[in-house]
Amino acid sequence: MRKMSLLCHTASLFIFMGLVCISSVGCATTKTVGPGIDTYVKMRWPAGVDVAGDGTVYYVYNPEGIRQLFAVDGGAGRPVALTSFEDGIGGYSLSDDGQWLGITASTGGSEQADLFLMNTEQRRLEALFENPSVVYGSVLWRRDSKAFAYRANDESPSDFHVYLYDVANRTSRKVHSGKGYFYPVDFNSDGSKLVIGKYNSASYSQLFEVTLATGEIREITPHTQQWSFSGVGYSADDSRFFVNTDYQSDLKSIHAIDLAQGNVTPLLPELSGKHTDGAALNEDRTLLAVVVNEDGYGTLHLRHAADMKPWPGPPMTKGIVGNIRFQGDNMLYSLSNANTPGIVYRWNWRKAGSNTEALTSADTQGVDVSKFRLPELIQYQSFDGKEIPAFLYLPTTYRAGRKIPFLCYYHGGPEGQFRPGFNRTFQYFLTQGYGIIAPNVRGSSGYGKAYIEADNYKNRHKSVKDGIWAAKYVIDQGYTDEKMVAAWGGSYGGFMVMAVITESPEIFGAGCNVVGIVNFETFLQQTKSYRRKLREVEYGPLSDPEFLRSVSPIYKVDRIETPLMLAHGLNDPRVPVGEAMQVAVALKKRGVEVEELYFPDEGHGFAKEENRLLYYQQMAKFFDKHLR
Question: Contact, 493 vs 470, CB < 8 A?
Fold first, then answer.
């Protein structure tokens, strides 16, 4: 039986022929210009593309509205669905020899991922580890493809240990245990050693090397200093380990750790002053692909791994580069910008000047995405004069001096970053005459260590004020007026929605909080235990309840006058649904309009297309009603 979404509202609810209709509140009847929002939500394109040595292309796609794993033999022909999980897959990892797939999947958005194995020749799915109380993940294949490392919190819900699974014998053994969030990073060339990472916070992470035969472990990052170290991989001769780090700096860049001496050496001084997103090595560790974050865009830089001399890269338009994979002479990468939906390209890196080949294409539902609006990167001054970066979108119909409805979109994280990639729902609202501003308030990543830590603990109100000043900016610039601005965001962005409408209710005419925090005490008490310590570093500890209450919108609910829409999955393990319910009850007691949308088969976000459609339909009507 098809699962039905649950829509709750202050008005009465009628369900007829599978349609949800709300009585007494009414729906906006503004005329839609061009295709409706359903058309934009249904746009789709393959993601997570990888290629085996025999040319078989693997990718994640959702033609039926749920993410499944597909394969195309030899890179051509008819796609074959390899999985059929009711709630889709979480991810997959292809072994180096192309014979095995490690696949993770969970139920109903719970994120309690189980681990499966598939032989690519027989294409039979085998359940390795299934336990609704355990999270399995981070599958990393050994280079001989006979074993893989993974993480699991099977012994303690709060801690992730690292295991090694032998494919031939179907046996698993623990290679490291400890308090905290550990995960595998890279095997050395003969598979005798494994580097594992420990994530402590957004600005502090460590790397350790484990000798697998003896279990001996040693930290390879500086022992007594707290910096962020993300592993890239061993060098060709195993003497160095490449990392992306902010070591003794503000911005992250590529360094090498001498595994004998422990020295940490910067490798790309010519890219200093720019934040590095990450890097990838080819199979024989001779080529290093580095992605640099430049004002939100992701640019590709190739280097010879031995001496860091530049290597010519492929021709490409400005956008966000990601999903870098190497397969022999070929490099795969995706490119996304406002009118390019994450197309994956293949390029022969050994042939200078060779053309790229598009491996994937997008189903754009007949819409000409080449005409989608590009954003403008701006800087606006916040309450204390600090310059805050943001992306500003204006509709093609905009004329100077005309007031238009505006959406102020807050990203999640808070250590995330809004980036100018392909955003189909933004483009829908632009066709309807809306403007959009997407600020990267302090606490966002991509701008250095000081910026990402600028909202921690006692500085929470500073990022909230940055969000308010984004709305003030578009008003001061004459784009819109007070009460014509909506606050919209998910997860931490949902908290931002609640915070800005409590601190400046006179500005916002509507708000949409998706899976957001409203009460930091209950959030920290009820979030999954393996997330709690990491979140306490960011938001403040449960041992300081007075402060947590001071920044929790639930304690300022009497200030809210803004009509609010809430959308949440009932199985959310990160921000439990009680966050939405408690603010809904409080607002109903005060007679403030609140529309609630709950999904019984979703978690921290909406994975199923039918649920996304309902959410966006309701949100579009809600904004039209209150901002027009």
Answer: no
Q: How far apart are CA 352 and CA 347, in angstroms?
A: 10
Report the DSSP pairing between strands 485-490 and 508-514. Answer: parallel
Q: Say how far apart CA 297 and CA 173 lie, in whole Å.
A: 41
pLDDT level of residue 5 (50, 70, 90 thresholds): very low
The whole-angstrom separation of Cα 2 and Cα 546 is 45
Q: What single DSSP character describes residue 58?
A: E
484, 509 Cβ separation under 8 angstroms? yes
The whole-number pLDDT of residue 114 equals: 97
Q: What is the dihedral of CA 168, 174, 175, 179, to 10 degrees?
A: 150
CA 205, CA 221: separation in Å to the nearest integer?
Answer: 9
Q: Residue 579: name the closest of 512, 501, 526, 503 by CA.
A: 526
DSSP label at residue 33: P
- Is residue 27 pLDDT above 80, yes or no? no
Tokens of 173: 């053994």
What's the CA gap between 231 and 244, in Å, rounded? 6
- Three-state SS at 139: strand
- Residue carrying structure tokens 């993940």: 137
Residue 529 has pLDDT above 90, yes or no: no
End-to-end CA, the chain = 39
Per-residue pLDDT reduced to its tens digit, 406-438: 999 999 988 899 999 999 999 999 999 999 999
> Using one digit for the tens of pLDDT, what is the confidence trace for 102-127?
999 999 999 999 999 999 999 999 99
Query: Exposed, middle or buried, 368 (CB in 10 Å: 0-12/13-18/19+)?
Result: exposed
**Pick from 305, 315, 389: which is nearest to 352 by CA?**
315
Q: How far apart are CA 129 and CA 115, in angstroms?
A: 5
Q: CB of 113 within 8 A of CB of 135? A: yes
Q: Give 555: exposed, middle or buried? Use CB within 10 Å, 0-12, 13-18, 19+.
A: middle
Q: Tell me which residue of 387, 419, 406, 385 sits closest to 477, measured CA to CA.
A: 406
Cα-based torsion angle of the residue sequence 537, 538, 544, 545 in order, rounded to the nearest 10 degrees: -140
Using CA of residue 117, residue 122, residue 123, residue 127, what is the dihedral sign? negative
562: pLDDT strictly greater than 80? yes
Q: Is 83 helix (H, G, I), strand (E, B) or coil?
A: coil
Share of the chain above pLDDT 90, in %: 87
Q: Among positive and negative, which fits the CA dihedral 246, 251, 252, 255?
A: negative
CB 429 within 8 A of CB 407: yes
87 neighbors 583 (Cβ within 8 angstroms): no
Nearest-angstrom CA–CA distance, 300 and 318: 10
